[in-house]
Design brief:
Structural class: mainly alpha
Mean pLDDT: 82
Low-confidence stretches: none
Radius of gyration: 49 Å
Shape: rod-shaped
Strand order of the largest sheet: 1-2
Strand content: under 5%
Length: 267
């Protein structure tokens, strides 16, 4: 019964240790999953969104500078190159706006639609300005001033989206840091509890082993005493039997079935 109890106790202790290790592993995996999700949102959504709208503003400004340089240019070949570049900038602007649209929350869609309309009007007017610049520079400059009368101030609208994107990125970075702190705390607490449980169970196991060793030593000593007592008892019985044989007054010998003398005789 004692052996069964010790075996059951040992199995329970091992199961508890395995449970502590499993709890630490699960907590670590859960914390890493949360941290990975937070980092993914920063890397795959917030940062690309901010870069996209910032790129949109840069492209708008580049088209403004290109239009001015086109008006002031005197070389036909240079203007031809600028025309090509204007088409490239327009296409790239559309691409970046679409990229932002895929990452933008619903609140940004109306502002984004206004910027798209402003882009279309800007590109159309800029084409007219470049055509006019081929004939009359002054007239082209006058026509270029019509950009400022556009119903949607693209610089201001883009600035609002940039500001929102920066705020969202800051919030997401702060949330990611909070997830990291929580994950670290969880791992530390679970690891500490697992360590305490392991230390406690280890102490119990070693104490049980020590008790078992003490019991084995005690049993060994008791067994030696028992063997010694049994040996003395047998010797005493042999002496008592010898005394009986010597007191009979007859001569007695012990012979085996084969007729051989065994050596046991009375006095």
């Amino acid at each position: 019964t004692d052996g069964v109890v010790r075996n059951v106790r040992f199995v329970v202790l091992i199961a508890a240790l395995l449970a502590a290790v499993a709890a630490t592993t699960v907590a670590g995996l859960h914390a890493m999953h949360n941290l990975d999700g937070a980092l993914s949102r920063v890397v795959e959504t917030d940062t690309p969104r901010l870069l996209a709208i910032t790129h949109v503003r840069r492209l708008f400004r580049s088209m403004v500078v290109l239009e001015r340089d086109f008006i002031l240019a005197r070389d036909a070949a240079e203007r031809k190159t600028m025309n090509t570049k204007a088409g490239t900038l327009g296409a790239e602007l559309s691409e970046q706006l679409e990229r932002y649209a895929r990452l933008a929350p619903p609140d940004d869609q109306q502002t984004l639609a206004d910027i798209r309309a402003a882009r279309d009007r800007f590109i159309a007017l800029s084409a007219q300005v470049r055509d006019k610049a081929l004939q009359d520079t002054e007239a082209a400059l006058v026509l270029a001033k019509q950009h400022s009368k556009d119903p949607v101030p693209w610089e201001k609208s883009i600035g609002e989206l940039v500001k929102k994107s920066e705020q969202r990125l800051d919030e997401q970075v702060a949330e990611t840091h909070a997830v990291y702190v929580q994950a670290r705390s969880t791992l530390l607490w679970v690891s500490a509890l697992a360590a305490l449980l392991g230390a406690g169970l280890g102490y119990v196991i070693f104490r049980g082993i020590g008790k078992m060793v003490s019991e084995v030593l005690h049993l060994n000593q008791h067994l030696e005493s028992l063997v010694k007592a049994r040996t003395e008892s047998l010797a005493q019985r042999e002496r008592s039997l010898r005394l009986v044989l010597d007191s009979t007054g007859d001569g007695l010998i012990e012979v085996g079935r084969d007729g051989r003398f065994t050596g046991a005789v009375s006095a």
